Amino acid sequence: MKTSHLLWRSLFTSALLLSSCAHPPPPESPPAPPHEAPSSEPEPESAAPSASQEALRRAEATAQELAGTLKTNLVAAMSEQGPEAAARYCSVGAQGLTAGIADARGVSVGRSSLRLRNPTNAGPAWVEAWLAQQGERAADGVETVGRVDTLPDGSQVARVIKPLAIGGPCVVCHGPAESLAPGVRAVLLDRYPGDAATGYSIGDLRGALWAEAAVGGSAPTTLQMFGALRAVMHQGDYGSKVSLGELLAEPGGHGVGALEGLAGEVTFDGGTAWLSTPDGSGAIATTKLEPGAGSDRGVALLAFHRVDAWTTRTLEEPASLAELGDRIRDAATEAGLSLDHPIPFRVEGPFEQLKYHVIDGSKLPAGPSSHDAHKDAGITVEHAAVEATLIGLWSTEHAGIFTHMGDTTHVHVTVAEPLGSGHVDEVRVPTGARLMLPTASRGP
Fold it and tell me: How many other C-beta atoms are found inside a 10 Å radius of the C-beta of residue 411?
């Protein structure tokens, strides 16, 4: 068995060296999503070439760091415990590694594909456009992309896409489904019930590794996604993806999600975790865990950012929950935030007609469910008028990941008196409410 592991290590190392360590050829232009339309004109003379070059260097270095570290960790898992361990690492360790590198480097980075295994690996719109342009094809002849795009607000971003090819060891987990070893199939069925990433042959284009760095400023805040809404709704994936203690270890946590087993709602605001659970008598029990608190309790679904600073603006007209997404989009555009990335937000009240629920997974029927079924299985709280804070994320690219189809926001609420928190179903946001978005660091 040890000899087999050493052979896998040799093959796996060779394939990853070929696919992720080659020098990129001259850059080509990735297609732009319709809402962004980056300029294809030569860089203006007023722009600082050194800033653009530095941003490209940071994006390239971050992509290489992710590729190299993933290679090292996968080789170790494969050589020490076999391909099943490598498959398990991809489902847990790779996500935390990617988020950690992005946070440390201030660069958005990830992997994506037309055929996703983990739905949380869906890329931003410009990456998805590049993947669609390539289509299902051999990797041979697909070139690395590296360029600087000018966004409609005048800010610039450096973008890198590195194609990922299927090598010999890759087919152990990504080959025809019927050819996978029983142990690998079992891991994939357990971790990825909706897996679409089998059926590849050696030499196929598997997807892309991408990175994006702001020119002369900071990168967008990086989303850490644990689980996916579609997996919860359609596959009954209620298992733990991360512990509360891991998320509370550092300050600035901001996020919305559900506890393991759908035993309640979790909301992060300013690094504090608000936990609301059914108390068994038809009421809700809400507790708070401060930053640094230890907890082994698991989280089944969470869209999470760390936000260092917020900028506040006053809403000049009222909004329903359905209209709130448009208000956030407009404010983010004015603030110079990229609409190509998820945007965390806070809204401080008072609010009217607030209605929220706390999920009770024990009341859900077995099998696939729906948003309405989750609300029906939960406990509902209503306030005609109340001081509260809305906590949420906005995105046009994460339907089925953390927003429901047709929505651009996932919104929770925290209420100090009477103490409570949960998933918002209805709210009236009045004129004068305070909308808070991450502070953008703008370049020259």
Answer: 23
Which are the contacts of 199, defined by CB distance < 8 A and separation ≥ 6? 115, 174, 175, 176, 177
Do residues 312 and 436 lie in contact, with contact meaning Cβ atoms separated by under 8 Å?
A: yes
The residue with tokens 């209503």 is 382
Whole-angstrom distance, CA of residue 389 vs CA of residue 435:
10
Q: How far apart are the first and last CA of the chain?
A: 58
- The C-alpha angle 328, 329, 333, rounded to 5 degrees, equals 115
| CA gap 121, 114 in Å, rounded | 10
- What tokens does 326 get? 């448009």
pLDDT of residue 26: 38
Give the residues across from 391 on adjacent strands: 346, 412
What tokens were used for 418?
């009477």
What's this model's pTM, rounded to 2 decimal places? 0.62
Residue 349: C-alpha distances to residues 43, 354, 388, 423, 431 (Å): 44, 11, 5, 16, 10
List phi, psi (to 5°) of 74: -70, -40
Reduced to 3 states (helix: H, G, I; strand: E, B; else coil), residue 165 is strand
Using a 10 angstrom Cβ sphere, with 0-12 exposed, 13-18 middle and 19 or more buried, the burial of residue 265 is: buried
Number of Cβ within 10 Å of residue 90's Cβ equals: 23
The residues of the chain scoring below 50 in pLDDT are 1-29, 32-49, 441-444
Conformational region of residue 280, where left means phi above 0, alpha means psi within -120 to 50, and beta covers everything else: left
The amino acid at residue 348 is E
- 């109340």: which residue's tokens? 386
CATH numbers and ranges of domains, the chain? 2-214 (no CATH), 224-438 (3.30.1330.80)
Model pLDDT, residue 104: 67
Confidence at residue 220, expressed as pLDDT on a 0 to 100 scale: 57
Beta-carbon count within 10 A of 401 CB: 22
